[in-house]
Design brief:
BirA Bifunctional Protein, domain 2, alpha+beta, binds biotin, SH3 type barrels, seven-stranded mixed beta sheet, Arc Repressor Mutant, subunit A, six-stranded antiparallel beta sheet, single chain
């Protein structure tokens, strides 16, 4: 009911009378008043004037379905958003829901994760109301071997969304997003599949939107940051989530159409922070120094090792060397 009231108020710049709302929703005026009170308690700023009715002045900074939907132009992705005030991990919840048949394109959003997951078994700091912790449920009918490319589709969507908000984001292959040489976003793709058939893919995106210095563990401060810390201003999380979903839909459709994800790969190449840089490649417990030459059309990172050998990396970890050692 509350969602419906917000919807009515959102669509009307001027006042809407309590009577009109009660007629549209088929409830009493007293019930409308009660819901308005609850909305105000949630942080909605609603002006109420006798004989005129109600007018929405400002919405709270929440990533609820109603708030994010205002920014959506997509037709499948994010048409269903499942919002959680707090949860362990949006990826874990997305997996549980996907196991129960939740449909393709559903997005799980949490305001806070108590057990946010990073890659390689690491944890992901996810304080309340400060970041964007979201996961897409996807059911692509493709060869499971191609799944690594979905991570690059996600990375390209984040970069494009950032661009639309004047954020100059870069991609650190395969799944980090960088602002001012600091990691501000990570992507974790997980999959359930048979040998040649995917049951579902969970694409989890974590963005340090409005985190403050004290939110980071000491050892992370050198390499990680938030958009707010880098720009000195708060970023509109709802708008950013909306733009990520819109861009993700376009790039995902293009990936399904060409089976290669060329549009996304070309964005990741254009915005690569690695091409031309000296790096350390960490693979299977071994570490090699190399220079990054390119990101090829197959989404592989092409590196030239110290011994002159050129290698194409399909997956792995890469550290970037700066003036003072490895900086990313
Ligand atoms: C990494 O860089 O190690 C990947 C981090 C991925 C974090 C996001 S936050 C939303 C989703 N849910 C999780 O538990 N993890 C991903």
């Amino acid at each position: 009911m509350k969602e419906k009231i917000i919807h009515i108020l959102n669509n009307e710049k001027d006042f809407v009378s309590g009577e009109e709302i009660s007629k549209i929703l088929g409830v009493s005026r007293a019930a409308v008043w009660k819901h308005m009170k609850a909305l105000k308690e949630e942080g909605y700023e609603i002006e109420s004037v006798t004989r005129k009715g109600y007018r929405l002045v400002a919405s709270p900074d929440l990533l609820t379905e109603e708030e994010v939907k205002k920014h959506l132009t997509s037709s499948v992705m994010g048409r269903k958003i499942m919002y959680f005030d707090s949860l362990e991990s949006t990826n874990t919840t997305a997996k549980d829901l996907a196991d129960k048949g939740q449909e393709h394109g559903t997005v799980i959003v949490g305001e806070e994760q108590s057990a946010g997951k990073g890659r390689l078994g690491r944890s992901w700091v996810s304080p309340k109301y400060k970041g964007i912790w979201m996961s897409f449920i996807l059911r692509p009918e493709i060869n499971p071997m191609l799944i690594a490319k979905i991570t690059q589709v996600g990375a390209a969507a984040v970069v494009k969304a950032g661009e639309e908000m004047n954020l100059d984001l870069k991609v650190k292959w395969p799944n980090d997003i960088i602002l001012n040489d600091k990691k501000i976003c990570g992507i974790l793709t997980e999959m359930s599949s048979e040998l040649n058939q995917i049951n579902y893919v969970i694409l989890g995106i974590g963005i340090n939107a409005n985190l403050d210095l004290e939110d980071f563990e000491e050892e992370l401060v050198l390499k990680a940051s938030s958009i707010k810390m880098e720009l000195g201003e708060v970023v509109d999380r709802k708008e950013l989530v909306g733009k990520i979903i819109n861009n993700f839909e376009k790039l995902y459709d293009s990936f399904m159409a060409d089976g290669r994800g060329l549009d996304s790969i070309s964005i990741c190449r254009e915005k690569s922070i690695l091409i031309g840089r000296e790096v350390r490649v960490i693979k299977g417990g071994e570490s090699t120094e190399a220079k990054v030459l390119d990101l090829n059309d197959d989404g592989e990172l092409v590196v030239k090792k110290k011994n002159g050998e050129v290698e194409k990396l399909f997956s792995g970890e890469v550290s970037v060397r700066g003036k003072n050692g490895y900086v990313l």
